[in-house]
Amino acid sequence: MSTRDELHPYTSAELRLMPTLAVGQAEDLKAEDGDLRWWLSRCTLADGATHRVSCERLTAGRWVISGEFEPFEEPESRYDPDAPSVNEQAQRSYYDKYYGS
């Protein structure tokens, strides 16, 4: 669990309830306070996202990522090396349908 501080005053659940101020390529701008902005990711781990919340700070006229919070957890693998592939399953179904088991 992250501690709240200047860069991380909101949780993703709190940001989700806020109106969207701007839409980025993969994130929604949810809060802005002077030289800080908080973005909520619309992506998931499957899309390549690593965190749900990111914070930017205005530094020398540029917005620079100052922190990323609430990392996505790696799901447990669903891969079963002994299970037939989708292709093998389709071939078996075709064979069973036309040639019998």
Structure overview:
With 101 residues, the chain is an alpha+beta fold. The chain has one domain (1-101). The protein contains two helices and five strands. It has helices at 12-17, 86-99; strands at residues 22-23, 27-33, 36-41, 51-59, 62-71. It has a five-stranded antiparallel sheet with strand order 1-2-3-4-5. The longest helix has 14 residues, at 86-99. The relative contact order is 0.14.
Summarize the structure.
By secondary structure, this protein is of the alpha+beta class. The chain is built from 2 helices and 5 strands, in the order αβββββα. The chain has one domain.
Count of DSSP H/I helices: 2
Distance between the termini: 54 Å
Order of SSEs = HEEEEEH
Radius of gyration: 22 Å
How many runs of DSSP E, i.e. beta strands?
Answer: 5
Helix content: 10-25%
Strand order of the largest sheet: 1-2-3-4-5
Main sheet: strands, sense, barrel? 5 strands, antiparallel
**Estimated structural class:** alpha+beta
| Fraction in beta strands | 25-35%
Q: In the residues, how many domains can be counted?
A: 1
Give the oligomeric state. Answer: single chain
Described by the principal axes of the CA atoms, the overall outline is rod-shaped
The overall pLDDT, averaged over residues, is 81
Poorly predicted runs are none
Salient structural properties:
101 residues, alpha+beta, 34% strand
Secondary-structure map with pairings?
Blueprint: H1 12-17, E1 22-23, E2 27-33, E3 36-41, E4 51-59, E5 62-71, H2 86-99
Antiparallel strand pairs: 1-2, 2-3, 3-4, 4-5
